[in-house]
Amino acid sequence: MKTKNQLMIMAISAVFAGGIIMTSANAQSDEEHTADTFIVRDTVTEILGGKSIPAKEYIHFYDTTPYMIMNGHVAAKLPCDKNAKTPLEVLIGKAPDLKAAEMEYIKELSKPGLSCLYHVDLNSDEMIVTDVALSNPTDKPVRFPPTSTVTIGINEIMPMEEESGH
Fold it and tell me: Which superkingdom heads the taxonomic lineage of this protein's source (predicted)?
């Protein structure tokens, strides 16, 4: 009986000690997580077919402030000429400092002269990215063909350091 009680006390002590270790490890993990990025999966699709964007104007699609985008993607099916060039620009950055992104032309899913698909990878490696917009830098309005879309997928975000302004 004495041995059975001793074993029971040892088992309870082991469980209790394990619980303390697990709680400590979880607390440490939570502290580390707050300083790191957050995995999210948010997708926004805007159907633009039949609409237009005025000359020298933009459409603002996405804003993650007060978080910056660490990993994301834009797929934009836009009007293009026979050389697969679009007059439109995908703008990324932290408002009001948005810059034209380098768009990757996707030949297999494009019809030059009508609409072309372009991809843009989003991250905050070289500059902080919180906003995504589509700009018409030309002097004429641009009308969107029937299947024009912009899809923005955000996979990972991270808090920005505190500062004044946007």
Answer: Archaea
